[in-house]
Amino acid sequence: MILLAIDTATEACSAALSVDDALIWRYQVAPRDHTRLILPMIEELLAEGGIGRADLDAIAFGRGPGSFTGVRIGTGVTQGLALALDLPVVPVSNLAAMAWGAVREFGATRVHAAIDARMGEVYYAAYRNDESGLEILAEERVTAADAVPADESPAIGVGTGWGSYRPALRARLPNVDEIHDAYLPHARAIAELAAPIFAKGGGVAPDDALPVYLRNQVTHVAASKAG
């Protein structure tokens, strides 16, 4: 299986190429350069992997939540490539990608992922990892930082929401004992989450690869129906 993953939903811009069990990637924090960076990143990965666009089996992308502009860029690039190549698309939550990254990089078993949504709010979700994989404990939402679901279990906190609203989040999640407040989503995690979904027959048509903004409830509902 050959899968391309991209993410431009936050300050980070990244792409990853998964070829069977091998994974290579490009990653750069560049808040205003996603449009300039993402296509060259993809071409570099394909060249490094000795893969042509026609060899790809699927494309995965970070479908949000995140920056409105960033999510649109990632969605547009993904849809354009997938339509041109007639490929299925696997949308992946950026909050889930952050949680999976924390599992792999920090050994987390419970993760509270929070992206700064401005205006005192965060994009938030909570996850637990066990032998069956990543389980959602609190569904993703946009909420005031002081109104996230209370949880007293030991856990790790990741994301820019922790940098902006740490006291408010701490009050609701008092036993988060490790915080990575500059942590951003990565296409590597998106590829790792998307691969088993695609292997089981998951994925959507390019036209159904919709962004999730959370503040736009119509789009959120449509994207949920698309998988």
Question: How would you describe what is shown here?
Answer:
The protein is an alpha/beta fold. The protein folds into 2 domains: 2-93 and 185-225, 2-Layer Sandwich (Nucleotidyltransferase, domain 5), CATH 3.30.420; 94-180, Nucleotidyltransferase, domain 5 (2-Layer Sandwich). 36% of the residues lie in helices and 31% in strands. It contains 6 helices and 10 strands. Strands 3-2-1-4-5 form a 5-stranded mixed β-sheet, with helices on both faces. Strands 8-7-6-9-10 form a 5-stranded mixed β-sheet. It is globular. The chain starts with a strand and ends with a helix.
Question: Could you give a short account of the major beta sheet?
Answer: 5 strands, mixed
Tell me the distance between the termini. Answer: 21 Å
Number of DSSP helices?
Answer: 6
CATH architecture of the largest domain: 2-Layer Sandwich
Binned strand content: 25-35%
> What are the secondary-structure elements, in order, as H or E?
EEEHEHEHEEEEHEHH
| Structural Rg | 17 Å
By CATH, the topology of the largest domain is Nucleotidyltransferase, domain 5
Strand order in the largest sheet: 3-2-1-4-5
Question: How many individual domains?
Answer: 2
CATH class of the largest domain: Alpha Beta
* Structural category: alpha/beta
Q: Any idea what the shape is?
A: globular
Give the tally of β-strands.
Answer: 10
| Full CATH superfamily name of the largest domain | ATPase, nucleotide binding domain
Specify the helix fraction band.
Answer: 25-40%
What is the average of the pLDDT values? 94
> In terms of per-residue confidence, which ranges show pLDDT below 50 for 5 or more consecutive residues?
218-227
